Amino acid sequence: MKVKDVMHKGVDWVSPDTPITEIAKLMQGHDVGCIPIGKDDHLIGMVTDRDIVCKGLASKDFNAARMTARDVMTEGIHCCREDDDLAKAVHHMETLKIRRLPVINKSKRMVGMISLGDVGQSATVDLLTQCVKGVSAHHH
């Protein structure tokens, strides 16, 4: 099974100047927990719902009207290819202890997003168990 068989298609990225209120609306509208951040046609980071809460809401100088993706995003991006084997992508998520990965095509364009939830709906039990153990390990 390939990554493209289970990914969310058509997830857009937004610029670092996007207000976090817009990002929250995108998350709600697409039913996703993270939005990739791009600049000059390159992915440069990711904003998760947790970033908005922990680095946004919880910060002393929180101002919803002024805070942007740049203020809360995690820089650096990990991704996988749409034609990668699903097991490889899951192993990548496990190693990095992350729950979501942007998916790129051969031209390095983002074509979707894969999450543990997507994997859970279509992966084998063994693959999923291995991934959940790995991703959850840092929460003890």
TrEMBL record:
The name this protein goes by in its record: CBS domain-containing protein
Record key words, sorted: CBS domain
Keyword Repeat: no
CBS domain span: 7-62, 73-129
PROSITE patterns reported in the protein's UniProt record: CBS
UniProt-listed InterPro entries: CBS_dom (IPR000644), CBS_dom_sf (IPR046342), Diverse_CBS-Domain (IPR051257)
